[in-house]
């Protein structure tokens, strides 16, 4: 989206531009506050995703050790 279309749509005020009258600033939340309403399925999916990310990161380094010419 170019600047002209953004100005027409009013998205500039929401994305770091000037605030319109009557519009309240966004409330900031802590890192743990984002997960306040997570249920057990959400926690399970976050744990599985985190373990998958760690496994993906370890796999590259492990392949260098196993298949390296050292």
TrEMBL record:
GO terms for molecular function: ATP binding. Keywords: Membrane, Transmembrane, Transmembrane helix. The chain crosses the membrane at residues 43-67. One of its GO terms (cellular component) is membrane. Residues 8-26 have a biased composition (Basic and acidic residues). InterPro entries: ABC1_TM_sf (IPR036640). Residues 1-26 are annotated as: Disordered. Gene3D superfamilies: ABC transporter type 1, transmembrane domain (1.20.1560.10). This is ABC transmembrane type-1 domain-containing protein.
């Amino acid at each position: 989206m170019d600047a002209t279309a953004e100005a027409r749509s009013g998205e500039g005020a929401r994305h770091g531009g000037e605030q319109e009258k009557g519009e309240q600033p966004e409330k900031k939340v802590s890192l743990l506050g984002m997960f306040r309403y997570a249920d057990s399925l959400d926690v399970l999916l976050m744990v599985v995703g985190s373990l998958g990310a760690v496994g993906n990161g370890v796999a590259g380094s492990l392949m260098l050790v196993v298949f390296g010419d050292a």
